[in-house]
């Protein structure tokens, strides 16, 4: 079963995803601010980021296993309240133990929101287009965040950025009440349409390893930028500019649609990401950092709709899409630790080689799923027989 969300429902889905992603999108800035405020070492900072991302994985696992039975709106409210409370606790954290606890609470809420948003989008009538809209909104959200966060940090320190994220989550809590209602009368997928468990596991594993490489670089991007001689404000501007450029990624993906399938765009993204990863890892002058910082976000959000469309092809009911954040979060949790080990051993250039291995391996794993076509979804637009109007957006389309 699929549905066609109306504008308010789509906006609620977008904000649920954005609020869930917020802690990761602003990770380099709030992590650097926390390191300064609380005098945390690089290894300790890696664990701080990993605790939040591991909590995201746990919450995503719990949600994905029962997404067919959960009351979506109620759980979305629980998720956003966890994000709000976790960030608020971090803003007033007086010692490291409270800070670690706050990131765990925030991570649980983020995992709930991301899993619900991706599962609901997978049930939409055109999942690839829905995910393109998701990616575009994430780019806009990041654009605003990268502009505002350095100002809050400069004036209030780490407490400023955590308090700002908390207030933003609280401001949009009411909007989540308009999430689509849980569809009823779910039909079973025919056995012939179900891919093997190996194909599903391979695709999800590829997602986790891909995210490991992204997070390994993203976590230390602010530090790498400062190593080229730029100030934190200049690094923030570069990351903000990357947020501007990446707006083109989902826009191009939406225009192209499935014209070139899923495999070709995914392979193209891998190749560009390998080049950009080496460029940033070996960056010694600002232009190298600038180039990589503009290429990577553009490619990430260009490829994201094709990854999510792959999950929809594996299971149109949204269970695989809801499970994807589990693997993404595991990769994100391991990424900062793996990067910390690599950096301690051979410096920042080691991240480039780590990324190369990850991207090549993920391309091999995702091949079977990327070839699989999206099952055609039957739609029957029911009209109001008296007024001849289109159905409401929350009506289920069979």
Kindly report how far apart the N and C termini lie: 5 Å
CATH class, please? Mainly Alpha
Per DSSP, the total helix count is 15
Rg is 20 Å
Number of strands: 2
Strand order of the largest sheet: 1-2
> What is the assigned CATH homologous superfamily?
MFS general substrate transporter like domains
Describe the structure.
The protein is mainly alpha-helical and 398 residues long. It has one domain: MFS general substrate transporter like domains (Growth Hormone, Chain: A, Up-down Bundle), CATH 1.20.1250. A two-stranded antiparallel sheet has the order 1-2. The longest helix is centred in the middle third of the chain and has 30 residues. The protein starts with a strand and ends with a strand.
Q: What would a concise description of this structure say?
A:
The protein is an all-alpha fold.
Chart the SSEs and their pairings:
Elements (H helix, E strand, L loop, with lengths): L1 E2 L3 H19 L1 H12 L3 H24 L6 H20 L4 H27 L4 H30 L1 H14 L25 H23 L1 H7 L4 H14 L2 H9 L6 H19 L4 H29 L4 H28 L2 H23 L24 E2 L1
Antiparallel strand pairs: 1-2
Q: Which characteristics define this entry?
A:
75% helix, mainly alpha, 15 helices, 398 residues, Growth Hormone, Chain: A, globular, 2 strands, two-stranded antiparallel ribbon
